[in-house]
Amino acid sequence: MTTLPKVNELGFFEIRLESIGGLGANLAGKMLSEDGVVGNGLNGVGFSSYGSEKKGSPVKAHIRFCDPDTNIRDTTPIERPHVVGIFHDALFKTLNCTSGIYSDSTILVNSKKTPDKLKELLAIQGGTIAVIDATEIALDEQTKVNTAMLGALYRVLDFLDPESMKQTIRRTFETKYPYLVEPNLRTFERGFNEVVFKTFTPAIGSAAAPFKRAESALGYETQPIGGTVINPGNSILKDLSISRAGMLPHFHENKCINCAACDTACPDFCFVWEEKEDKRGRPQMFLKGIDYQYCKGCLKCVQACPVEALTDERELDDGYAEANRVPHLFDLVK
User: Measuring CA to CA, how many Å separate 313 from each of 22, 206, 251, 316?
Assistant: First the structure.
């Protein structure tokens, strides 16, 4: 019989996955809850929450496990997780991914950063940080981040049997996508074997910050007068960088013929143009660069470019996008 290492006052071991649409957290949560129940004999439930436009927007998956004789009568979002899985470290920019964690919670992050650097960015007092470069694994194996994250999660959740998850992966893919079974099994194995852990002990006298539920900005007492929507959906605050799944376009100006094929293919108007004179002194629009804040890494521009002035490159943790971003004109007027 599977024994849970710890439970809350209701008898639940709780896991929260933080992600954005397109990285597979929804499916990962379903597979994890299914395997906990079917493959490991636990009682459990799993569900996700996301907005109207799932791809590229924040996604949370919630999984609860308990002993078979415990009834689950709670299907509210998980606020005090024992384990948090963060599918993209750029989520730190906009979300409090570690909200509600305990002093001994485990935080699994898809990142190339070190546990010490992540502790600094997450501003946590103690607990365990597990790091896996799930994006690199997914690119190597031509799969998605979610299976690598599941592999790493099964190292964290050592009360679950990884062999049963392999059977769950096989069942999930073999009917519709049989060619994805073996790549996803390899991705799971690499996630399981390549994850790195580091435990941090809280300083003497320090206490974990008490949990505080976030106050809704649009509640009946806190909304703007008249219910006015003061933040337009497409504004200078929009940041799609979290949506990139490890690749982004690089612009080679010396090869560009300014044909605008890239701009026509781009779904998010990332390309910035300026008017200059051509060799004959006539006005012409020239491509100035890419505003990476709005680029979600779909790489349609790379496919459309006829002269290889755009190439797909691995997005490393070197600040390339920030250093080479060419802001749109409306970003300069604030």
Answer: 19, 44, 10, 9
